[in-house]
Amino acid sequence: MPRIRFLFAIIGAVCGGAAGMVASAATAPLTMAEVLAAAKPDDWHALDPENTLILEFARGRVVIELAPAFAPRHVANIKALVREKYFDGLAFLRVQDNYVAQWGDPNADARAGEAAVPRPIRHAARTLKAEFTVPLRADLPFVPLPDRDGYAPQTGFSGDFPAARDPKSRTAWLTHCYGTVGVGRDEDADSGGGTELYAVIGASPRWLDRNITVVGRVVQGMELLSSLPRGNGPLGFYEKAEQRVPIERIRLAADLPPEQRIPLEVLRTDSAAFAALIEARRNRREAWYKVPAGYIDVCSVPIPVRPVATGK
């Protein structure tokens, strides 16, 4: 079955009556802007406050959506750390160009300077067993891309996240794309727990897939992270304490008064609108493009996020 028909068949089965929008896209291709303009209110869903972190620092606020379906123990531990205010007053320790921005306790990482006594933890664990993959389950959604991938047998989207899976090993995992948030660790696979986190700020380092526990992705504020001053030490660590960028606080959106939250909604990856968006990005229709690629990888498909409309 041709790639485009394959994609349309999948989305038609998922979306039922909404498949008409996809069919029309085959005869009258749309740009991404046109796809989003035509998207219906039901094509969007609000972020879950129980799985949304808001990181605040001098530059502004960064919103992170957590992925408990792929890393349940780590997500629960990170939420416990946030609720005991573990991250308040810590810092960005490492900003490596075209790679990651990493934050945590400088006294817990010898690479960030002279090691001292790490910040105490009261209600959370410092390390956990790695959650690099999860078993394939019937209740784990997956919308596949029609194109082949070099790092996984299948790639696509699971809920709000770019993902991959291997039918032979019956496993699935989240992929390292721009904005991915993962758990820093040492050489031991089980040496991380969420006390040290990073966000990908450069080209997608897919070789990290299945080697680090991925806990979510940045949905707003990436420009604040990607423009942080680069560290000039090994691996992008800041060599002097005064170079570190302090974190004011991290809070779970559910723990904030409604007026302090950042209400956002995400385009559903199981919607006809998202299927049309994939095709628009695989074959760019804007006048500037002269040769449509006819191919896209999982990290090149944006998952649109927008403020919740007033009155919703």
Note down, in words, how this protein is organized:
The protein is built from six helices and 16 strands. The protein is 18% helix and 24% strand. Strand 9 (161-166) and strand 10 form a beta hairpin. Helix 1 packs antiparallel against helix 2 (19-27). The chain folds into two domains: 3-45 and 265-306, no CATH class; 49-263, Cyclophilin (Beta Barrel). It has 312 residues and is α+β, with helices and mostly antiparallel strands. The chain starts with a helix and ends in a 5-residue tail after the last strand. The model is unreliable at 1-26 (pLDDT under 50).
How do the helices and strands line up, and which of them pair or pack?
Layout lengths: L2 H13 L3 H9 L4 H7 L5 E3 L5 E6 L2 E7 L5 H12 L7 E5 L4 E5 L29 E2 L7 E2 L9 E5 L2 E6 L4 E4 L5 E4 L13 E4 L13 E7 L1 H5 L18 E8 L11 E4 L4 H11 L22 E3 L5
Antiparallel strand pairs: 1-15, 2-3, 2-14, 3-13, 4-5, 4-14, 5-12, 6-10, 7-8, 8-9, 9-10, 11-12, 11-13, 15-16
Helix pairs in contact: 1-2, 2-6, 3-6
Give the structure's gist in a few sentences.
The chain has 312 residues and is of the alpha+beta class.
Helix content: 10-25%
Mean pLDDT: 90
CATH architecture label of the largest domain: Beta Barrel
Total number of helices: 6
Counting DSSP E segments of at least 2 residues, the number of strands comes to 16
The portion of residues forming beta strands comes to 15-25%
Poorly predicted parts: 1-26
Descriptive keywords:
alpha+beta; Cyclophilin; 2 domains; eight-stranded antiparallel barrel; five-stranded antiparallel β-sheet; 24% strand
